[in-house]
Design a protein that fits this description.
single chain; alpha/beta; Rossmann fold; seven-stranded parallel beta sheet; 7 strands; 46% helix; globular; disordered N terminus; binds NADP nicotinamide-adenine-dinucleotide phosphate; oxidoreductase; SDR_fam; Sc_DH/Rdtase_CS; SDR family oxidoreductase; NAD(P)-bd_dom_sf
Length: 264
Amino acid sequence: MSLEPVNEVALPKRDASHTPRRVLVLGATSGIAEATTRIWAREGANLFLVGRNAQRVASVAADLKTRGAAYVDTAVADLDDVDGHPELLARAITSLGGLDVAYVAVGILGEQPTAEQDVNHALHILHTNLTVPVSLLTWLANFCVKQGRGTLAVLSSVAGDRGRKSNYVYGSSKAGLSAFLAGLRNRIDREGVTVLTIKPGPVKTGMTVNMKGSEKFADPNKVAEQIVSAVEKRKDVLYTPSIWALIMLVIRAIPERVFKGLNL
Ligand SMILES: NC(=O)c1ccc[n+]([C@@H]2O[C@H](COP(=O)([O-])OP(=O)(O)OC[C@H]3O[C@@H](n4cnc5c(N)ncnc54)[C@H](OP(=O)(O)O)[C@@H]3O)[C@@H](O)[C@H]2O)c1
């Protein structure tokens, strides 16, 4: 008879030999990022966490330590302040003693109805979701090219694949990000640096908690498993859950004259 502790959840067995050793997480309090870093922590990774809420960053760091992370350091920073990026990134890499993976999760959903009336809100969404990752990734890409290796794993969205009336400002920020990542990959893949564009469909996190039907959205732990596997396999683009690759293929194929009349 097995005497397993009753409260232990059975975790899938994984070969940890491909686990990245040094991971920088930008937007570490994100629901998707937290689920992902828990897997890496369990496998003994070294983590540097950046978030803007000191208390939440400290609590995520403490949790990851108890889950097995070999090393956890943190920085509290509002990433909207792009001028602070170079110093922050240099500090993180010094703390980790190098870099295997930079995981960019920072993002805001914003409010589409507000963005339609208030251009400052629209520009804020574009700043956090596009300008901020572009600033971080330009620095990180050049660092990785210099060392001749590394992975840049970035959370974009299926929302960037086609503009819809219900979220086209957020969607356009992610479309810009996906295009930036495609071009960056085309520039630096040949230098030994992997650029992974992650396109989740709707996932149950703090970002979507107030959305209609959110209880049916994807489990962040399942999404995180696919992200970890895509990093290991050095994939270029990941739709997660996988069904979203097919859904977006269909959505992209709808002719514009039909699409403009749909309530999406
Ligand atoms: N959930 C989904 O359905 C879904 C689908 C497709 C793509 N995504 C993308 O996945 C990424 C992670 O989202 P999530 O679902 O995990 O939502 P989340 O829990 O709300 O995560 C967003 C993260 O971005 C951080 N952030 C926002 N503005 C920041 C700033 N100025 N400085 C520092 N950190 C900032 C948030 O920090 P605070 O905790 O302090 O707010 C939070 O850690 C986002 O880029 C999102 O667009 C999510």
